Amino acid sequence: MVKNLEYVVVLACIIVPKTSEEEFVMSEPHEAPLIIGESSQVQKVRMAIEKFAPLAAPVIIYGETGTGKELFARLLHSLSSRRNGPFIAVNAGAIPETLVESELFGYVGGAFTGALREGKMGLWEAANGGTLFLDEIGELSLAAQAKILRVLQERVIRPVGGTEDRPVDARIVAATNINLMEGVQTRTFRHDLYFRLHILHVTVPPLRDRQRDILPLIDYIMRKLCPELHLDEPPVIAQDAREKLLGYIWPGNIRELESIVTRTLSLCAGMTELHADDFELSESDVRVPPDILHLFIEKGPLRRMKTRAEDAIIQWALTASDDNQTAAARLLGVHRNTLVDRLRRKNRSSR
């Protein structure tokens, strides 16, 4: 059961700009968001964030879309000495190339056609004393990256049309769902900016690697939806539904989880128990460990291939279950004693 739901933040914020005025979200959070996640993978990320919080260096947060990168950025901000300052989240990749400079650095009055007479403060300056979160930084053009690099080096910005630099004091936290080093190698990401940012870094694991967290997340999402759907309590998730949900790879991560749970609960409002058929999941995304797929096409004696495939699948299940043998056996669809016996035989043969 999750307590203090009003202070729980689970999902990464999706910032979809409609106009240049809506390309960022500014807030001044004082409460540290509670991370819903019992898995060791999530706890390792939290520990890293706690270590990074008191430092001044930039932070890069890696992770697939929908894993909650902004959540951890907000956690870092709330644990830092800048917690009472603004937290500004910018979908950097969504800002048009022609507006990057004016959005981030602002402009003076009359700088260009359509500019406000009084000018406009840029997001970087608005984040003074706080944290500037640059999401999808890997999507920025090389020209935009060069402008960001200058600010990181000089700690000053120059508004569009201005003649004087202005000092800025905002901690930079960036996020991306791509491998920036690969971007450096393919020359789509500046190597000097990479090394400026890649001082402190952490990777948020995908939901498929956090099996232990799936049911607690579903419980939170359903309880959050209850008032909206006029429900006193969320329905019980039957065992067949649990197995189906735990056996899915969640390619859209927490964002997809919320969407599916919201749809299911909305269509099944009034039901006291939800079964597997109530959850519509893509059959093509049934859980298959990606790191063992090669074993099914590997050439060699059938017995050796079968043994190696079984070992790999068991190891994957144990990892996904945080080394909990009962949970791993449930994931594999076998009794725990069967799994324990298989592990014993494996250990004997490896001696």
Automatic annotation (TrEMBL):
Keywords (alphabetical) are: ATP-binding, Nucleotide-binding, Transcription, Transcription regulation
- Keyword Transcription regulation annotated: yes
Is the Transcription regulation keyword given for this protein?
yes
One Pfam family cited in the UniProt record for this chain:
Sigma54_activat
State the CDD domains in the record.
Answer: AAA
| Single GO term (MF) | sequence-specific DNA binding
**Which residue intervals define the domain Sigma-54 factor interaction in the entry?**
35-266
Q: Which InterPro entries match?
A: AAA+_ATPase, AAA_lid_NorR, Homeodomain-like_sf, HTH_Fis, P-loop_NTPase, Sigma_54_int, Sigma_54_int_dom_ATP-bd_1
Give the top-rank taxon of the lineage listed in the UniProt record for this protein: Bacteria
Write the protein's name.
Sigma-54 factor interaction domain-containing protein
Which terms does the UniProt entry file under GO BP? regulation of DNA-templated transcription
SUPFAM superfamilies assigned: Homeodomain-like (SSF46689), P-loop containing nucleoside triphosphate hydrolases (SSF52540)
